[in-house]
Design goal:
This is Permease. With about 100 residues, this protein is mainly α. Helix 1 packs parallel to helix 3 and helix 2 runs antiparallel to helix 3.
Length: about 100
């Protein structure tokens, strides 16, 4: 395979970023945003976003460079996506946060 995107054994920022963006899109669709409802289907995007973050972390290099800085920014984006997906997953189960 000539492209690293399709080869799981090779590092690929394109694949990692694509998985994270697809996960956040799936999470919004599965949760019924803006009317969030409980759904265990959100476990699928949760696992995928952690996989995408791991793929991004694999692309880090030992010496600092602008590439390393760009990968760090992508890791921060991944952490924000993790927080959003976990919020969509856990918020409907937090009954004490809702009005009665």
């Amino acid at each position: 395979m000539p492209f690293a995107v399709f080869n799981i054994r090779r590092k690929s920022l394109v694949r990692a970023t694509g998985v994270v963006i697809a996960s956040i899109t799936m999470a919004f669709l599965f949760s019924g945003f803006p009317n969030i409802h409980p759904s265990l289907l959100l476990l699928i995007p949760t696992v995928l976003v952690f996989y995408g973050t791991w793929e991004t972390a694999r692309c880090l290099r030992l010496r600092w460079s602008f590439y390393h800085g760009g990968v760090m920014l992508l890791l921060y984006m991944d952490v924000m996506a993790i927080v959003m997906i976990l919020f969509l997953l856990l918020y409907p189960y937090a009954g004490w946060l809702e009005r009665t």
